Amino acid sequence: MIRKSPRFAARSLALPFFLLLPALAQAAPCSDTGAQYEAWKPVMAAEAEAAGVGPRGIDALMATSYSKATIGADRNQKSFRYSLDKFLEVRGASAIISQGRKRKAQNPDFYAALERQYGVPAGVLIAIHGMETGFGNFMGDTNVVSAIATLAYDCRRSDFFTPHLIGALKLIDAGAISPQTRGAKHGELGHTQFLPGNALTYGVDGNGDGRVDLTDLVDAMASTANFLRQKGWRPGVGYQQGEPNFAVIEAWNAATVYQQAIALMAAQIDS
User: Signal sequence: where (predicted)?
Assistant: First the structure.
């Protein structure tokens, strides 16, 4: 079944009819199955082009394929429904804490410099790094553009993922990623799993080589710290549940059990 996405409905209510006509030509529909994916791509391409995506990004979109693996992962995120204790066990919290302490001890000046610049403690950055990719040991094996395009096409959360698709295509235009770049099942990139729109907005060239590469540890850590700071992180203020900075972790991941786990592991890494 194919139907207009919620963003189309909102635009329809907000604009007079004579202003709506261009939007009608550009509002890509969504679908609950992959059957109309190939027909969707040129409609989405027109919307992307109107949003400023150039030829390289458009070509990358048109080369994508519908990702059944991404849809399967999106429908099966069971761990976020676990209790905190079960979540910590399943996600290997004890190993993250142990390895995290070692990583901080091995590079204290690096993490101290990040905290001076962005105000985010080492433990928080290290806990996110460990949680997301096991400290870079597995950053994903899914084509990023196909994954994000599939989620933008899928009706479940098309409003959320369409800006990230536009972001991914702009990253391709800029040469920051390629059409073949691999990431997680939801299209996340690099050591800490940035969604492409966030990579475009908050990515930082931490190592000074003139480009943002989230598979580079320095760039990834600086970008993660910058993201949290820009989302409202207050230097020197607590981040446990009930403290001001706990709410900022929500900007990284909306699952409460994830936020609780990051806060608890971070405190133990920093202790």
Answer: 1-27
